[in-house]
Design brief:
This protein is mainly α. The protein is built from 16 helices and five strands. The longest helix is centred in the middle third of the chain and has 30 residues.
Length: 445
Amino acid sequence: MDRLQSFGNDPFDKPPCRGCSSSLSEPYIKCAECGPSPFLLCLQCFTRGFEYKQHESDHKYEIMTSDFPVLEPGWTALEEMALLEAVMDCGFGNWQDVAYQMRTKTKEECESHYMKNFIHNPLFSSTLLSLRKTKDSRFAEGAIPFKPTDDPPRPTFDSVLSRDMAGYMPARADFMEEFDNYAEWDLKDIDFVDDDSDILRALKLSVVDIYHSRLKERQRRKKVIRDHGLINLRKFQMLERCYPKEVQELYDVMRRFARVAGPIEHDKFIESHALEFELRREIRRLQEYRKAGIKSFCSAKVYERVKRLREEERRKRTMLCDVLQYIQDGRACQQWLSKQAAIDAGITPAVTTITVSATGRRSAPPLNLTGLPGTEKLNEREKELCQVVRLVPGAYLEYKQALLNECRRQGGLRLAQARSLIKIDVNKTRKIYDFLIKEGYITKA
């Protein structure tokens, strides 16, 4: 009988009985001749003489139990293991919770037994001292001095910092939710036993190989994120905005190649292109100076100042031309021009009243289409129409498509039908209808 054989890596995780498949409770029987995997039986199956494949009832056996003292009387081996596990779970010194988890000993008994046998025991202390000396002698030559560093941040769950860092925990160097987070689910029910056929064992090994490949991909992604500093995405985006617009577009295109090149090589590549862009821009500026006949930097400063003034004047004239193109009241336009001329000449203009149009209302200024979505899909005549009727390009494209579909279905379209389809101002509808008729997009019914 070998009582110490019950101590394994995890004594509470024993395989079931090979006879009735029930959970084993001590004492139980282990066959001494069947192997290499243990052949375990409960007492009921052993008394019935259970036999299976190579196991026979007359084989030698061992009684597995931990109900015997090890360090001192009154403490069984099972209680010793339960004490060590409770100290690991609850922490050293938390004897109230340790006793509550053990159930069989008081707080004072747990503390005195642990301090006597595991802390102040000369056998254990000498063993630990010898292990420490051996380790120190092994690493004495290449030892690296320890330098205390700042404590890493520990963001709470679902906090702003935790969301900014995508659930990354710096103290553990891990993520709250990993890539392919449920990869382990495929392995939780796999168990390798001697009764498996060759095909079933090969299938199980294939599942394990697939799991290993998924782990490698998870580690590869984490390495790319750490090496390139992609944990705090907001800070990474702020660094990108330091570059000019053209370099930002290049950065966005070349980001997919960061996994191939290392972080230093990738940053050098982007920085070199940013420097190239700056050099090209400076060369174009110097070529412009030479073309204008400028030979000194003092003259270049005067040139830049005059150039800015010229651009402002050109922009004002362009805006004025755009306004004059759509003004219908000529008298009001003339009064506005006289007033602006007096202001430019430094003369206080006389107070004049701008007359309104015959309808009693001022003409609305044209709509500025700059930056509006859908503007790039319009031609020049369509842009002019949207500016006059003050209609955003997206709405115009939607109304145009609706009228085209109805005209194609009916073979023609009348103004009344167009007004029933487009629920906007009737005057705007008429202008859109007349424009589509004129451009040949639709035909009258």
